[in-house]
Amino acid sequence: MRGPVVLVLVTLTCFATAQHQALIDYLERRLLAIEDRISLWHEQTARYASELRALKQQMVSQLENLDKEKETLRMNLDGVGTRVDRVERELDYLETQNGAQPCVDVDDKLIEQQVTLVKEKQKAQYSKLSDCSDMISSIKAMKILKRVGGPKGMWTKDTNRGSGKLYIFNGTDEDTIHEFASVQDFSRSLGITLSKNLKLPSAWRGTGHVVFNNYVYYITLAEEIMIVKFDMKNSSVTDSTVFPLQDHVPVYGLTPETVMDLAVDEEGLWAIYATRQNERYISLAKMDATSLDIEQMWDTNCPRENAEAAFVICGTLYVVYNTKQPGRSRVQCVFDVNGMVTNEDAPLIYFPKRYGSHSSLKYNPQEQLLYAWDDGYQILYKLIMKKKLEI
């Protein structure tokens, strides 16, 4: 009896072991299948995440481009609206003076009136806004701070008396300003690492920008020259205007990228420009810094040929020319809006030997310093002044 019982027990044990092994094999296969599916899910999730990141970056880039195009379109529309308003005011004036006239007659008279207005602004006696009567006697010292950026650009302080901030405009067709808290921060900064970036709604053209009372005034160019006034506190465009030039040419013969050069002195905001009608010489205009209206215009006797840059001090335009000596420049032409200084009276002013030629010269009336950009080098010139009546 014991032999069959043992056989039965052994048989049952083997059967149970086989079932257990089969169950283990089944569970292992299921686990392997689950692991394969989890691995597949991870791969698909990583791919989807990568595609979503790429889509997000593409959307952000497109939105930035749309914002730029929107701001540019808004500025263009504002400029067109301003010009339409001016034309409407002129038309209303003509109608009140002479009654309704055919459209062609009105247009002809409007053009004649605009030409007459420009001539009057050129002939009118300039009314000084300050008692400043200084002019340059000589250059006392030259200091090279560092070299940042490309061959052409502009750097300046805000001419507001309470501001010590410094601004770098690198290049002639960019839209990002580098702001430093002080000249000391700029001097000890490795490149532009200590700067704060200020992005403009559109790219500037040339090197003729200024920073005045917390506003950036810069030039853009499409078919016409536009002056844009940008509020740095609010990061928004406060105003813009189309400068009334039908045929403009670069203002300096040696800096063709600069179609207009803005300047600030004790009297306020100035525009230095040139027209095809008088293309051999440089012209000057006094502007209202608040409204961007033109207050008065002058045709000077300062040639464009060989001119590098210019600046204004106390209503006197100083034009800097490249000499035959390498790395040497001098003030070779001056124009005083009050007629107190002539080329014959002005002293000879030579700039110390440098690296190349000035792409910009910006005067700071608070410090009596010139901020110069020379082949990527940022240079300061300390000026010695004298009274115009002491000539």
From TrEMBL:
Residues 1-18 form the signal peptide. Residues 49-76 form a coiled coil. GO terms for biological process: signal transduction. GO terms for cellular component: extracellular space. It is found in: Secreted. The keyword Secreted applies. The keyword Metal-binding does not apply. Pfam families: OLF (PF02191). It comes from the Eukaryota. Residues 131-387 form the Olfactomedin-like domain. Keywords: Coiled coil, Developmental protein, Disulfide bond, Glycoprotein, Secreted, Signal. InterPro entries: Olfac-like_dom, Olfactomedin-like_domain. Disulfide bonds join C132-C314. Belongs to the OLFML3 family. PANTHER family: OLFACTOMEDIN-LIKE PROTEIN 3, OLFACTOMEDIN-RELATED. This is Olfactomedin-like domain-containing protein. It comes from Zoarces viviparus (Viviparous eelpout). The lineage of its organism: Eukaryota, Metazoa, Chordata, Craniata, Vertebrata.
